[in-house]
Write a structure and sequence with these properties.
By secondary structure, the protein is of the alpha+beta class. It is built from three helices and three strands; from the N terminus they run αβαββα. A hairpin with a 2-residue loop joins β2 and β3. α1 packs across α2.
Length: about 80
Amino acid sequence: MRGKGYGREAVALLTDWLFEHAYALLVEAGTDPENHAMRAVFRRVGWREDGMVTEIGRAWLMYRITRQQWQAARG
């Protein structure tokens, strides 16, 4: 089911919900640096790359979006 936009839609809906209903100021998430599809999803929804972190011996590429960035990406 890859390539049908479901991942982008899910991340967009979750991002919208967190800012609209949970009143988040910032949302962060990590992905495997080699997961190019997920990285593209984050970029398409307006998230920005925020560097690498290592937890329990595993590297994660972090993405984040602020309330201001989310509002700008919406329109």
